[in-house]
């Protein structure tokens, strides 16, 4: 591609041009680790690294030209812009030929439920015989190529590249989780969606957004990214006041004013069922997902697909066969041999913890023992709130280590302890394995152990370089099997 095409597009952002208009660009990147001959490299001052500092090294790697935000030497062909992140979004859209225009695109944001919605969307589309891709926290599945990405929402270039691959390989749809960070940093700015979903909004990520208003504004920005005929599917119980010109907004929730009204939710150990009042009549919905809150996630996906033209009864039928996502209300069947239930769940916000424990309360007459911690280097303010919620709703609270990410685990635990309700039954055990073992040992017949906060995650991250393999399900399973082999049963 000739750089002049890209220059035209960037015009409103350009401060200075210091390059030949006839340069040919065969690749674009903002990451030096993937630069090759013919690359247009986008420099930016990031949160942890300033890639303007490595411009000479990247030039030697073969970069043809640079997009920069700062003054750099004339020896490097460059275009200086006011904002490299916006430039990256614009360039990525153009360079990869706007593949989103030919795909059914589904973007979900919200504090909790994004992964569940995107995986359910993938499942239903597959059941309808469509091929496509998804990206998000647990995994990226780009036309069958499955891999983990450190970000819930990758960079603009990666997303557009994956969308282009999806289209080239004959895919029809692309579903993705859209984090508030990504919305704020223009990672999805040049994408347009057929369906956007807003699951809910409660406290999280205020280390980054600082205020809840900023966080909410970032999330709501997804509505601006709809295609002209696109549909926003919004949880009315959290966003009752969203208006946006002529855009189609479809609401869902328990409030009778919503377009899709959730009623009579019943959850048990084999799934959840509820009545959904829709513009097409009342329907009974059954899902294998346990936890009443999943009625919201399921409804978001049903409403989105129905509103773009899929048959409601067929969508509801396809939902039935979805088995859920790794580490989300995952029951360990072997625990039953000890007379107890053990559940792994990714709840790591105050709201998610409350919802999961309340769901468990409906499922069990026994005591609920919760093991959890909080991640380091992220929203410290939610820690005491998590402590308060767990000690309010659980019978025994065991505070432990999550991913400290360089923070002292003792300090994180102490932040959580500040919120614990006085006189509630609680323990703090720094070693996560020991905490899980203690919870399972304390459980009597009929009790439930909830191991929360890390879900599918395979590693505990102690600092930038020290990761240890730690998957809650595997650790809990080992402990349970060990107890079964020793002939232990929870009859106490
Ligand atoms: C704070 C934050 O949001 N950081 C994200 C952001 O980084 P950044 O733009 O500040 O980039 P940086 O790491 O400082 O590097 C600056 C530039 O130098 C480049 N670089 C860097 C090093 C190098 O050797 N060579 C090189 O070229 C980088 O590619 C980048 O272009 O943009 C990058 C590309 O999209 C992300 O990978 C990076 O995620 C970091 C790893 C991160 O931890 N992000 C978290 C906070 C985050 O974004 N999380 C949300 C989900 C949250 C949730 O829902 O739980 C997410 O969407 O993942
Ligand atoms: N609709 C919901 N309302 C409240 N809590 C929910 C909802 N859906 C899921 N959860 C809780 O949030 C946890 C994470 O679910 P999921 O992975 O689907 O959300 P997410 O938004 O993708 O999270 P993250 O962005 O942190 O990856 C679940 O394990 C459950 O505890």
From TrEMBL:
Residues 108-303 form the Mur ligase central domain. Belongs to the MurCDEF family. MurE subfamily. Gene3D superfamilies: Mur ligase, C-terminal domain, Mur-like, catalytic domain, MurE/MurF, N-terminal domain. UDP-N-acetyl-alpha-D-muramoyl-L-alanyl-D-glutamate binds at residues 32, 151-153, 179, 185, 187. InterPro entries: Mur-like_cat_sf (IPR036565), Mur_ligase_C (IPR004101), Mur_ligase_C_dom_sf (IPR036615), Mur_ligase_cen (IPR013221), Mur_ligase_N (IPR000713), MurE/MurF_N (IPR035911), UDP-N-AcMur-Glu-dNH2Pim_ligase (IPR005761). This is UDP-N-acetylmuramyl-tripeptide synthetase. The modification N6-carboxylysine is found at residue 219. ATP binds at residues 110-116. The gene is murE. Carboxylation is probably crucial for Mg(2+) binding and, consequently, for the gamma-phosphate positioning of ATP.
């Amino acid at each position: 591609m000739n750089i002049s095409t890209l220059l035209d597009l960037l015009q409103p952002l350009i401060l200075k041009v210091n390059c030949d208009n006839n340069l040919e660009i065969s690749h674009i990147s903002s990451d030096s680790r993937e630069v090759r001959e013919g690359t247009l490299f986008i420099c930016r001052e990031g949160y942890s690294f300033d890639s303007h500092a490595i411009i000479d090294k990247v030039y030697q790697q073969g970069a043809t030209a640079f997009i920069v935000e700062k003054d750099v030497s004339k020896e490097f062909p460059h275009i200086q812009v006011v904002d490299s992140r916006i430039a990256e979004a614009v360039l990525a859209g153009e360079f990869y030929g706007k593949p989103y225009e030919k795909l059914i695109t589904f973007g979900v944001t919200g504090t909790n439920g994004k992964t569940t919605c995107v995986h359910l969307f993938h499942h239903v589309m597959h059941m309808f015989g469509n091929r496509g891709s998804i990206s998000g926290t647990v995994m990226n599945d780009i036309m069958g190529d499955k891999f983990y990405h450190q970000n819930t929402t990758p960079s603009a270039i990666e997303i557009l590249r994956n969308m282009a691959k999806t289209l080239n390989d004959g895919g029809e749809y692309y579903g993705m989780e859209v984090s508030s960070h990504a919305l704020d940093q223009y990672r999805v700015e040049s994408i347009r969606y057929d369906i956007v979903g807003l699951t809910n909004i409660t406290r999280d990520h205020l280390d980054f957004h600082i205020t809840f208003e900023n966080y909410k504004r970032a999330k709501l920005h997804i509505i601006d990214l709809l295609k002209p005929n696109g549909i926003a599917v919004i949880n009315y119980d959290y966003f009752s006041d969203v208006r946006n010109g002529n855009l189609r907004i479809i609401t869902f929730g328990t409030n009778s004013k919503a377009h899709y009204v959730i009623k009579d939710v019943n959850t048990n150990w084999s799934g959840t069922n509820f009545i959904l009042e829709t513009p097409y009549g009342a329907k009974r919905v059954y899902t294998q997902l346990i936890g009443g809150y999943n009625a919201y996630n399921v409804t978001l996906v049903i409403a989105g697909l129905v509103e773009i033209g899929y048959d409601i009864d067929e969508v509801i039928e396809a939902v039935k066969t979805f088995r859920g996502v790794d580490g989300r209300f995952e029951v360990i069947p072997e625990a039953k041999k000890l007379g107890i239930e053990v559940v792994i769940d990714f709840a790591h916000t105050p709201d998610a913890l409350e919802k999961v424990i309340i769901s468990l309360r409906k499922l069990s007459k026994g005591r609920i023992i919760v093991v959890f911690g909080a991640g380091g280097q992220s929203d410290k303010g939610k820690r005491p709130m998590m402590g308060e919620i767990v000690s309010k709703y659980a019978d025994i609270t065991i505070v432990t280590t999550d991913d400290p990410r360089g923070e002292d685990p003792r300090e994180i635990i102490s932040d959580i302890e500040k919120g614990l309700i006085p006189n509630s039954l609680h323990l703090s055990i720094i070693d996560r394995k020991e905490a899980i073992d203690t919870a399972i040992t304390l459980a009597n017949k009929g009790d439930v152990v909830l191991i929360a906060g890390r879900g599918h995650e395979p590693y505990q991250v102690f600092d930038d370089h020290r990761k240890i393999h730690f998957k809650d399900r595997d650790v809990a399973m080992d402990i349970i099997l060990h107890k079964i082999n020793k002939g232990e049963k929870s009859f106490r």
